[in-house]
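Colleagues,

For the teaching module next term, I've prepared a clean inverse folding example: a structure given as tokens, and then the sequence designed for it. I'd like students to try predicting residues themselves before seeing the answer, so please don't circulate the second half yet.
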């Protein structure tokens, strides 16, 4: 899971200081900005950037179960999200060079409507989860969170409807041979009572 005012640019290029004056003194006299009283000046502390990983976290290897190309079929169940409809799509999962981010592309149809999205999944060591940023072909973006337990993957997040925000989740269960998985999408207003709206199965083709 959307302007800016640009300040005027300072003049560029070398300027000759007046006789007996340093470049710094000349700049202070001609600057359009008020002088800073040194007695009131404060020094900002720059936050050190977080150390960058030099190798993929071993936990990312769990995402290998998704890597490949999949044919996805199923149905949209009549309810909160819309009328009953057939779902056909192609899902492709591949690693970005370096294998620290998994790229997922979804392209297909729900009924007669074209649907598509691209997702970027990473790994959060502090939360032991896989954050996912999703961008849809209708201009909407969303943030999700993947967690894995005993081979079952659950994607969770909020979904904005026209008049309210709903909780959504998808439960992925892989077959023993790893060549197919089911996806049950559900939605809830209170986090207790869940309504299924998508029921799909993906079969690996390559």
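(Answer key — instructors only)
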């Amino acid at each position: 899971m959307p302007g800016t005012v640009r300040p005027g640019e300072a003049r560029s290029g070398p300027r000759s200081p007046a006789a007996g004056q340093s470049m710094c003194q000349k700049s202070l006299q001609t600057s359009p900005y008020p002088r800073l009283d040194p007695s009131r000046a404060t020094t900002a502390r720059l936050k050190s950037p977080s150390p960058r990983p030099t190798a993929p976290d071993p936990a990312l290897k769990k995402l290998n179960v998704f890597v490949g190309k999949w044919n996805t079929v199923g149905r949209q169940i009549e309810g909160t999200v819309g009328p009953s409809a057939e779902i056909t799509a192609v899902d492709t999962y591949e690693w970005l060079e370096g294998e620290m981010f998994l790229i997922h592309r979804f392209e297909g149809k729900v009924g007669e409507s074209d649907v598509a999205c691209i997702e970027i999944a990473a790994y959060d060591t502090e939360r032991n989860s896989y954050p996912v940023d999703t961008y849809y072909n209708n201009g909407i973006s969303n943030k999700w969170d993947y967690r894995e337990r005993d081979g079952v993957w659950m994607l969770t997040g909020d979904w904005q409807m026209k008049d309210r925000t709903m909780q959504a989740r998808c439960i992925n269960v892989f077959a023993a041979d790893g060549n197919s998985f089911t996806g049950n999408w559900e939605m809830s207003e209170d986090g207790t009572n869940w309504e299924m709206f998508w029921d799909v199965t993906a079969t690996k083709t390559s």
